[in-house]
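Standup notes, protein team

Yesterday: finished cleaning the Allocoprobacillus halotolerans set.
Today: PHP domain-containing protein structure.
Blockers: none.

Input for PHP domain-containing protein:
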Amino acid sequence: MKKSYIDLHMHSFYSDDGEFTPIELVDMCHEAGIQIMAIADHNWVKANKEAAKHAKALNMTYIPAIEIDCTYKGVNLHVLGYGIDNDVCFNQLGENIEKQELTCSMKKLELTNALGFDLKKNNLMHFLAMVFIPVKCLEKLCLMIQDILIMNY
């Protein structure tokens, strides 16, 4: 009897902690002998359609998934959903969270500058682009820089 390997929790570059495209993840799973897989990106279902199509071409089983970040009674949770459809409401969730994160980042930048620094979003983006930081990491890196500056002031 042939063994069947599965991996039901990975993130594509649509998640802030993902690195690879959905196609790359399917290829990596295929090369590793995984026959059943799911990409559970944080608050997005963008990867599911292309990953499912590519997995099917490789005779793999793909289970559409999502990982929803939420808070319940003051506790941060990550709720996994499997076998979901690609309903637009899931991507609206991701867009809403992205807008909240951007607003928070701009507030942190404002607070950092109130401490006497002269940081501008465009200058940070230009610097980061020069050192070859992928765009998907830019927002996270800006937040980290601002947090460090605030903590060490």
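Follow-up from PR in the comments: The first strand starts at residue 5 and ends at 7.
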